[in-house]
Model the fold of this input.
Amino acid sequence: MPADGALIVGIESTCDETGCAVVADGRRVLANVVASQIDLHARFGGVVPEIASRAHIEAINTVIDEALGESGVAPAEVAAVAVTNEPGLIGSLLVGLMAAKTLAWVWDRPLVAVNHVRAHAYAPALDEEPIGYPAAALVCSGGHTALYDCRSPTEMTLLGGTIDDAAGEAFDKVASILRLGFPGGPAIDRAARHGDPTVVKLPRSLLRGESLDFSFSGVKTAVLYHVNGLPGERRGRKARRGPHAERAAAQPNAGRGIENFTPQEVADLAASFQAAVVDTLIIKLRRAAKATGARTLIIGGGVSANSALRSAARELADKLGCGLRMPAMAYTVDNAAMTAGLAYHYLRGGRVADYGLTARATTGR
Ligand code: KG4
Ligand code: ZN
Done:
Protein backbone atom coordinates (compact mmCIF):
# COMPACT_ATOMS: atom_id res chain seq x y z
CA MET A 1 0.00 0.00 0.00
CA PRO A 2 1.57 3.26 -1.01
CA ALA A 3 1.73 5.90 1.72
CA ASP A 4 0.70 9.52 1.37
CA GLY A 5 3.32 12.21 0.87
CA ALA A 6 6.58 12.33 -0.98
CA LEU A 7 7.88 8.90 -1.88
CA ILE A 8 11.57 8.72 -2.58
CA VAL A 9 13.51 5.78 -3.96
CA GLY A 10 17.07 5.76 -2.63
CA ILE A 11 20.11 3.89 -3.89
CA GLU A 12 23.29 3.15 -1.95
CA SER A 13 26.48 1.47 -3.19
CA THR A 14 29.36 3.31 -1.51
CA CYS A 15 31.27 0.29 -0.23
CA ASP A 16 30.25 -3.34 0.12
CA GLU A 17 26.48 -3.11 0.54
CA THR A 18 24.05 -2.71 -2.37
CA GLY A 19 20.94 -0.98 -1.13
CA CYS A 20 17.61 0.28 -2.41
CA ALA A 21 14.90 1.75 -0.21
CA VAL A 22 11.56 3.47 -0.53
CA VAL A 23 10.88 6.13 2.11
CA ALA A 24 7.80 8.32 2.59
CA ASP A 25 8.01 11.87 3.96
CA GLY A 26 11.67 11.45 4.84
CA ARG A 27 11.02 9.06 7.70
CA ARG A 28 8.56 6.23 7.04
CA VAL A 29 10.54 3.34 5.58
CA LEU A 30 8.31 1.29 3.25
CA ALA A 31 11.14 -0.96 2.06
CA ASN A 32 14.84 -1.21 2.82
CA VAL A 33 16.68 -3.92 0.90
CA VAL A 34 20.39 -4.45 1.51
CA ALA A 35 22.54 -7.08 -0.23
CA SER A 36 25.70 -7.51 1.79
CA GLN A 37 28.96 -8.67 0.21
CA ILE A 38 30.63 -9.56 3.52
CA ASP A 39 31.04 -13.24 2.55
CA LEU A 40 32.87 -12.27 -0.67
CA HIS A 41 35.44 -10.13 1.17
CA ALA A 42 35.85 -12.09 4.41
CA ARG A 43 38.64 -14.34 3.15
CA PHE A 44 40.68 -11.30 2.15
CA GLY A 45 40.25 -9.72 5.59
CA GLY A 46 38.90 -6.49 4.09
CA VAL A 47 36.88 -5.04 1.22
CA VAL A 48 38.47 -5.62 -2.21
CA PRO A 49 37.30 -2.68 -4.39
CA GLU A 50 37.25 -4.57 -7.71
CA ILE A 51 35.22 -7.43 -6.25
CA ALA A 52 32.89 -4.89 -4.63
CA SER A 53 32.06 -3.08 -7.88
CA ARG A 54 31.41 -6.32 -9.74
CA ALA A 55 29.14 -7.56 -6.97
CA HIS A 56 27.18 -4.27 -7.05
CA ILE A 57 26.61 -4.72 -10.79
CA GLU A 58 25.28 -8.22 -10.20
CA ALA A 59 23.01 -7.24 -7.30
CA ILE A 60 21.66 -3.80 -8.19
CA ASN A 61 18.71 -4.69 -10.44
CA THR A 62 17.42 -7.40 -8.11
CA VAL A 63 17.77 -5.12 -5.09
CA ILE A 64 15.78 -2.36 -6.83
CA ASP A 65 13.06 -4.80 -7.95
CA GLU A 66 12.77 -6.21 -4.43
CA ALA A 67 12.50 -2.79 -2.80
CA LEU A 68 9.82 -1.61 -5.23
CA GLY A 69 7.92 -4.90 -4.86
CA GLU A 70 8.06 -4.80 -1.06
CA SER A 71 6.93 -1.20 -0.86
CA GLY A 72 4.00 -1.70 -3.22
CA VAL A 73 4.89 1.63 -4.81
CA ALA A 74 4.43 2.13 -8.55
CA PRO A 75 7.01 4.22 -10.45
CA ALA A 76 4.31 6.82 -11.23
CA GLU A 77 4.00 7.56 -7.49
CA VAL A 78 7.70 8.19 -6.95
CA ALA A 79 8.61 11.85 -6.34
CA ALA A 80 12.39 11.56 -6.82
CA VAL A 81 15.34 9.20 -7.07
CA ALA A 82 18.11 9.71 -4.52
CA VAL A 83 21.62 8.37 -4.71
CA THR A 84 24.73 8.41 -2.53
CA ASN A 85 27.35 9.84 -4.88
CA GLU A 86 30.14 10.50 -2.33
CA PRO A 87 32.35 9.52 -0.53
CA GLY A 88 33.19 5.87 -1.11
CA LEU A 89 34.90 3.40 -3.42
CA ILE A 90 34.76 4.99 -6.83
CA GLY A 91 33.90 1.83 -8.80
CA SER A 92 31.16 0.96 -6.33
CA LEU A 93 29.70 4.47 -6.32
CA LEU A 94 29.49 4.51 -10.11
CA VAL A 95 27.22 1.46 -10.19
CA GLY A 96 24.63 3.07 -7.90
CA LEU A 97 24.93 6.42 -9.65
CA MET A 98 24.30 4.91 -13.10
CA ALA A 99 21.31 2.96 -11.79
CA ALA A 100 19.85 6.09 -10.15
CA LYS A 101 20.36 8.25 -13.23
CA THR A 102 18.70 5.58 -15.37
CA LEU A 103 15.66 5.37 -13.09
CA ALA A 104 15.35 9.16 -12.88
CA TRP A 105 15.51 9.42 -16.65
CA VAL A 106 13.13 6.55 -17.40
CA TRP A 107 10.61 7.72 -14.77
CA ASP A 108 11.19 11.39 -15.59
CA ARG A 109 11.75 12.30 -11.94
CA PRO A 110 14.32 14.57 -10.27
CA LEU A 111 17.65 13.13 -9.16
CA VAL A 112 18.89 14.02 -5.66
CA ALA A 113 22.54 13.63 -4.60
CA VAL A 114 23.33 12.63 -1.02
CA ASN A 115 26.59 12.55 0.92
CA HIS A 116 26.97 9.17 2.61
CA VAL A 117 28.49 10.42 5.89
CA ARG A 118 25.78 13.06 6.31
CA ALA A 119 23.13 10.40 5.59
CA HIS A 120 24.52 8.32 8.50
CA ALA A 121 23.82 11.31 10.79
CA TYR A 122 20.22 11.35 9.57
CA ALA A 123 19.62 7.59 10.09
CA PRO A 124 18.24 7.96 13.67
CA ALA A 125 15.20 9.80 12.25
CA LEU A 126 14.09 6.75 10.24
CA ASP A 127 10.87 5.17 11.56
CA GLU A 128 11.08 7.65 14.46
CA GLU A 129 10.21 11.21 15.45
CA PRO A 130 12.10 14.08 13.78
CA ILE A 131 15.46 14.91 15.35
CA GLY A 132 15.55 18.01 17.60
CA TYR A 133 18.13 20.52 16.36
CA PRO A 134 20.69 21.96 17.02
CA ALA A 135 22.51 18.65 17.34
CA ALA A 136 26.10 17.46 17.58
CA ALA A 137 26.56 14.38 15.40
CA LEU A 138 29.31 11.79 15.61
CA VAL A 139 29.50 9.54 12.55
CA CYS A 140 31.90 6.64 12.83
CA SER A 141 32.10 3.96 10.23
CA GLY A 142 34.60 1.82 8.37
CA GLY A 143 35.75 4.70 6.20
CA HIS A 144 34.94 7.81 8.25
CA THR A 145 35.01 9.42 11.64
CA ALA A 146 33.40 12.85 11.64
CA LEU A 147 31.82 15.36 13.98
CA TYR A 148 29.16 17.76 12.72
CA ASP A 149 27.34 20.79 14.01
CA CYS A 150 23.82 20.16 12.69
CA ARG A 151 21.26 22.94 12.52
CA SER A 152 18.73 20.97 10.44
CA PRO A 153 18.90 17.76 8.36
CA THR A 154 20.44 19.76 5.52
CA GLU A 155 22.59 22.31 7.38
CA MET A 156 25.62 20.47 8.71
CA THR A 157 29.06 21.90 9.35
CA LEU A 158 32.00 19.54 9.64
CA LEU A 159 33.84 20.19 12.93
CA GLY A 160 36.49 17.49 12.82
CA GLY A 161 37.51 14.19 11.31
CA THR A 162 40.16 11.53 11.48
CA ILE A 163 43.69 12.37 10.45
CA ASP A 164 44.55 8.71 9.87
CA ASP A 165 42.47 5.56 10.44
CA ALA A 166 38.69 5.72 10.78
CA ALA A 167 37.26 4.27 14.00
CA GLY A 168 35.73 1.26 12.23
CA GLU A 169 38.93 0.70 10.28
CA ALA A 170 40.82 0.54 13.60
CA PHE A 171 38.27 -2.01 14.88
CA ASP A 172 38.76 -4.08 11.72
CA LYS A 173 42.57 -3.94 11.87
CA VAL A 174 42.76 -4.74 15.57
CA ALA A 175 40.33 -7.65 15.07
CA SER A 176 42.70 -8.93 12.41
CA ILE A 177 45.69 -8.63 14.81
CA LEU A 178 43.64 -10.53 17.42
CA ARG A 179 42.52 -13.05 14.74
CA LEU A 180 38.86 -12.44 15.48
CA GLY A 181 37.77 -12.33 11.81
CA PHE A 182 36.10 -9.81 9.48
CA PRO A 183 34.24 -7.52 9.93
CA GLY A 184 36.12 -6.74 13.08
CA GLY A 185 33.76 -4.34 14.87
CA PRO A 186 31.08 -6.85 15.82
CA ALA A 187 33.76 -9.47 16.65
CA ILE A 188 35.55 -7.11 19.06
CA ASP A 189 32.23 -6.03 20.56
CA ARG A 190 31.41 -9.71 21.26
CA ALA A 191 34.86 -10.61 22.62
CA ALA A 192 34.99 -7.48 24.79
CA ARG A 193 31.85 -8.57 26.67
CA HIS A 194 33.96 -11.20 28.47
CA GLY A 195 36.98 -8.91 28.95
CA ASP A 196 38.22 -6.41 31.51
CA PRO A 197 38.85 -3.00 29.87
CA THR A 198 41.31 -1.96 32.59
CA VAL A 199 43.83 -4.78 32.04
CA VAL A 200 45.84 -3.31 29.14
CA LYS A 201 46.76 0.37 29.28
CA LEU A 202 46.29 1.90 25.83
CA PRO A 203 46.66 5.51 24.67
CA ARG A 204 43.78 7.91 24.03
CA SER A 205 44.94 10.28 21.31
CA LEU A 206 43.11 13.54 21.87
CA LEU A 207 45.20 15.71 19.57
CA ARG A 208 46.19 18.99 21.19
CA GLY A 209 43.96 21.38 23.12
CA GLU A 210 40.33 21.34 22.20
CA SER A 211 40.84 19.68 18.82
CA LEU A 212 37.84 17.89 17.35
CA ASP A 213 39.98 15.74 15.08
CA PHE A 214 40.65 12.06 15.69
CA SER A 215 43.62 9.74 15.38
CA PHE A 216 43.35 5.99 15.86
CA SER A 217 46.60 4.73 14.40
CA GLY A 218 48.41 5.10 17.76
CA VAL A 219 46.05 2.85 19.68
CA LYS A 220 46.13 0.30 16.85
CA THR A 221 49.96 0.28 16.91
CA ALA A 222 49.95 -0.05 20.70
CA VAL A 223 47.78 -3.19 20.37
CA LEU A 224 50.16 -4.55 17.73
CA TYR A 225 53.16 -3.99 20.01
CA HIS A 226 51.31 -5.53 22.94
CA VAL A 227 50.73 -8.68 20.90
CA ASN A 228 53.98 -8.98 18.96
CA GLY A 229 56.45 -7.05 21.08
CA LEU A 230 58.40 -4.03 19.99
CA PRO A 231 59.74 -3.98 16.42
CA GLY A 232 62.70 -6.37 16.24
CA GLU A 233 62.17 -7.69 19.77
CA ARG A 234 60.83 -11.11 18.81
CA ARG A 235 63.74 -11.62 16.46
CA GLY A 236 66.13 -10.86 19.31
CA ARG A 237 67.14 -7.44 18.01
CA LYS A 238 67.33 -4.29 20.08
CA ALA A 239 63.84 -2.84 20.27
CA ARG A 240 62.99 0.55 18.81
CA ARG A 241 61.75 3.06 21.39
CA GLY A 242 58.86 5.49 21.25
CA PRO A 243 55.80 6.38 23.36
CA HIS A 244 53.73 3.40 22.24
CA ALA A 245 56.71 1.07 22.48
CA GLU A 246 57.49 2.19 26.05
CA ARG A 247 53.89 1.70 27.04
CA ALA A 248 53.65 -1.73 25.42
CA ALA A 249 56.86 -2.85 27.11
CA ALA A 250 55.34 -2.04 30.48
CA GLN A 251 52.38 -4.43 29.94
CA PRO A 252 52.38 -7.86 31.57
CA ASN A 253 52.74 -10.81 29.16
CA ALA A 254 53.23 -8.50 26.20
CA GLY A 255 54.96 -9.55 22.99
CA ARG A 256 54.31 -13.30 22.92
CA GLY A 257 52.38 -13.42 19.64
CA ILE A 258 48.60 -13.85 19.47
CA GLU A 259 48.87 -17.65 19.18
CA ASN A 260 50.12 -17.70 22.80
CA PHE A 261 47.37 -15.50 24.24
CA THR A 262 44.63 -17.24 26.24
CA PRO A 263 40.99 -16.50 25.26
CA GLN A 264 40.73 -14.38 28.44
CA GLU A 265 43.78 -12.33 27.45
CA VAL A 266 42.31 -11.78 23.99
CA ALA A 267 39.02 -10.67 25.57
CA ASP A 268 40.84 -8.29 27.95
CA LEU A 269 42.80 -6.77 25.08
CA ALA A 270 39.63 -6.42 22.95
CA ALA A 271 37.85 -4.74 25.87
CA SER A 272 40.82 -2.43 26.56
CA PHE A 273 41.02 -1.41 22.89
CA GLN A 274 37.28 -0.83 22.65
CA ALA A 275 37.36 1.31 25.82
CA ALA A 276 40.21 3.43 24.42
CA VAL A 277 38.30 4.11 21.18
CA VAL A 278 34.98 4.73 22.92
CA ASP A 279 36.59 7.10 25.48
CA THR A 280 38.16 9.10 22.65
CA LEU A 281 34.92 9.29 20.65
CA ILE A 282 32.90 10.34 23.69
CA ILE A 283 35.39 13.01 24.82
CA LYS A 284 35.27 14.57 21.36
CA LEU A 285 31.48 14.36 21.17
CA ARG A 286 31.27 16.11 24.54
CA ARG A 287 33.59 18.87 23.28
CA ALA A 288 31.49 19.26 20.13
CA ALA A 289 28.24 19.37 22.11
CA LYS A 290 29.61 22.09 24.38
CA ALA A 291 31.10 24.10 21.51
CA THR A 292 27.86 24.08 19.53
CA GLY A 293 25.24 24.36 22.30
CA ALA A 294 23.60 21.17 21.01
CA ARG A 295 20.35 20.03 22.56
CA THR A 296 20.62 16.61 20.93
CA LEU A 297 23.49 14.18 20.50
CA ILE A 298 23.47 11.97 17.41
CA ILE A 299 25.61 8.93 16.76
CA GLY A 300 25.58 7.09 13.47
CA GLY A 301 27.57 4.85 11.14
CA GLY A 302 28.56 1.20 11.48
CA VAL A 303 30.43 1.73 14.76
CA SER A 304 27.27 3.19 16.33
CA ALA A 305 26.16 -0.46 16.60
CA ASN A 306 28.85 -0.89 19.27
CA SER A 307 27.32 -1.72 22.63
CA ALA A 308 29.96 0.14 24.69
CA LEU A 309 29.64 3.26 22.52
CA ARG A 310 25.84 3.20 22.78
CA SER A 311 25.90 3.02 26.58
CA ALA A 312 28.66 5.66 26.89
CA ALA A 313 26.65 7.98 24.61
CA ARG A 314 23.57 7.45 26.80
CA GLU A 315 25.60 8.33 29.89
CA LEU A 316 27.01 11.46 28.22
CA ALA A 317 23.58 12.64 27.06
CA ASP A 318 22.19 12.20 30.59
CA LYS A 319 25.13 14.11 32.06
CA LEU A 320 24.71 16.99 29.60
CA GLY A 321 20.93 16.97 29.80
CA CYS A 322 20.73 16.44 26.03
CA GLY A 323 18.53 14.17 23.99
CA LEU A 324 20.25 11.21 22.33
CA ARG A 325 19.42 9.80 18.91
CA MET A 326 20.97 6.55 17.75
CA PRO A 327 19.88 4.60 14.67
CA ALA A 328 17.96 1.34 15.00
CA MET A 329 20.42 -1.51 14.40
CA ALA A 330 19.21 -2.02 10.81
CA TYR A 331 20.16 1.60 10.04
CA THR A 332 23.62 1.57 11.63
CA VAL A 333 25.11 -0.30 8.66
CA ASP A 334 25.11 1.10 5.14
CA ASN A 335 21.60 1.31 3.75
CA ALA A 336 19.61 3.30 1.21
CA ALA A 337 16.81 4.30 3.60
CA MET A 338 19.00 7.00 5.14
CA THR A 339 19.84 8.21 1.62
CA ALA A 340 16.18 8.48 0.61
CA GLY A 341 15.25 9.98 4.01
CA LEU A 342 17.77 12.81 3.82
CA ALA A 343 17.01 13.39 0.13
CA TYR A 344 13.43 14.28 1.07
CA HIS A 345 14.73 17.39 2.86
CA TYR A 346 17.00 18.32 -0.05
CA LEU A 347 14.09 17.93 -2.46
CA ARG A 348 11.90 20.20 -0.32
CA GLY A 349 14.67 22.79 -0.41
CA GLY A 350 14.86 22.47 -4.22
CA ARG A 351 18.32 20.92 -4.17
CA VAL A 352 18.24 18.56 -7.14
CA ALA A 353 21.08 17.29 -9.30
CA ASP A 354 21.38 17.03 -13.06
CA TYR A 355 22.63 14.18 -15.23
CA GLY A 356 26.14 15.59 -15.05
CA LEU A 357 26.32 14.42 -11.41
CA THR A 358 29.61 12.62 -10.76
CA ALA A 359 30.78 10.14 -8.14
CA ARG A 360 33.53 11.31 -5.78
CA ALA A 361 35.73 9.04 -3.71
CA THR A 362 36.47 11.74 -1.16
CA THR A 363 34.75 14.96 -0.20
CA GLY A 364 37.56 16.78 1.59
CA ARG A 365 36.84 18.70 4.78
O1 KG4 B 1 28.85 2.45 8.08
P1 KG4 B 1 29.44 1.14 7.69
O2 KG4 B 1 28.48 -0.02 7.47
O3 KG4 B 1 30.31 1.28 6.39
C1 KG4 B 1 31.07 2.40 6.09
O4 KG4 B 1 30.48 3.44 5.70
O5 KG4 B 1 32.30 2.30 6.25
O6 KG4 B 1 30.50 0.77 8.82
C2 KG4 B 1 31.20 -0.43 8.80
C3 KG4 B 1 32.15 -0.43 9.99
C4 KG4 B 1 33.14 -1.59 9.97
O7 KG4 B 1 34.43 -1.09 10.20
C5 KG4 B 1 32.65 -2.46 11.13
O8 KG4 B 1 33.71 -3.18 11.75
C6 KG4 B 1 32.10 -1.42 12.07
O9 KG4 B 1 31.41 -0.53 11.22
N1 KG4 B 1 31.17 -2.01 13.04
C7 KG4 B 1 31.37 -1.99 14.38
C8 KG4 B 1 30.30 -2.73 14.95
N2 KG4 B 1 29.47 -3.14 13.95
C9 KG4 B 1 30.01 -2.68 12.78
N3 KG4 B 1 32.37 -1.46 15.10
C10 KG4 B 1 32.32 -1.63 16.43
N4 KG4 B 1 31.36 -2.34 17.06
C11 KG4 B 1 30.32 -2.89 16.38
N5 KG4 B 1 29.37 -3.58 17.01
ZN1 ZN C 1 28.68 3.95 5.92
Q: What stands out?
A: The radius of gyration is 21 Å. Residues 56 and 228 are 38 Å apart (CA to CA).
